Give the backbone structure.
Amino acid sequence: MLMDGAERLGERLLGEVEGEGLSSLLNSLRELTTSQKDQKAYFGIPELDALIRWPTISIPQPGPASLSALQHQIEPSSTLQPSLPIPQESNATAAAPPAPPSKKPTQPPLLELLSPPPSHHPSPSGKTSLLYLITTLTILPPTFLTTPLHGKNSTIVIFDPLSHFHIPRLTEIVTHYITTALRNHDKEFSIDNDAKSQICTLVKTSLTHVHIVRPQSWSALLEALQGLEAYLFDPKRHESAHRAVRAVVLEDLQVWRWGVLAEKEKETNANANANAMSKASSTLTPLLTSLSRTLQTAIITTSQSPSAAPLRPAIPLSLSGPGPGLESPVTRLVVTRVEVLKFGEGMGVGELEREREMRREVVRRGRFAVEGMGAEIGGRERARGFVFRVGRGVGVEGEEENV
């Protein structure tokens, strides 16, 4: 009888320990796997998603107190002897099971797109074209007429002070993306009048989830960012309240540099000697990280570098400052047009003609390169970038049928 009681107690305690440990482990693994899947396809552009730097996610390990409690529960069942009394349960001394790890959503990506200054690279760099592709995949649904579009069915907010982001051009790219996907999915698919009507309806509906703000001053930008949450959560002001916000984009941050520097010259207080760009960054970063955390949205900034070497953002996202800090590392990518190399010396007439034709094709296609900055991308060494092409549409090189 004594042995039976000891066995029952040991089995019960051991079962509780195994159940709690296994449940916690499975939850952690499930959360980790889901997070990794979301990371691999956040923007829906595999080559871009592969370059994103994400925070390291680790499986929670039991602390010293939890280990002590587990040992206290397990050891009696393995050392009980028939001649020893059975330990009695006590509410006052019973060790509480370890609490499950708190679930914390992974911070969405923070992305800085840079291009060299015009004096170094006068051709358009392609940052806005890349944003067109990101926007296309953001606003479209996952499928259309049974055809996979790989869209995110979300909304996007773009702060565009220089009016570089053109809705007619976006409309062309979105339409081309849809029609190309339909034809690639079914080579015999015929885009008749009915299909055209459905495509037009889809494009029109999707574009209502692109929100463009054009601030004309640094203070207006900050004010708009402060009021963005209230705007997005108000269903009376737009039709996107039911959608997730996939990204908040700040285009052309370099336009604010002179205004920020001018404000510094007006200052006469003790902060007048503070670095103006550092102060601007410390003001901007908490606003963006707060939006990212509340809306669970990516933050994308674009700017021309103030210098050719080293390349750096006009107003970088600071790593410290007032308010909440960065919970995700910043991914910094350089976007440039692929240059056409000069003719080599000693080339014959025939070679020149062939080269000229190849160069025309390169220029016509509009090839742009995206390269990661830093030795480590995405948590491990990997290919550091990709090339995309701009034509009637925008597509990653290797998918010419999408351009």
Notes: The longest helix spans residues 2-40.
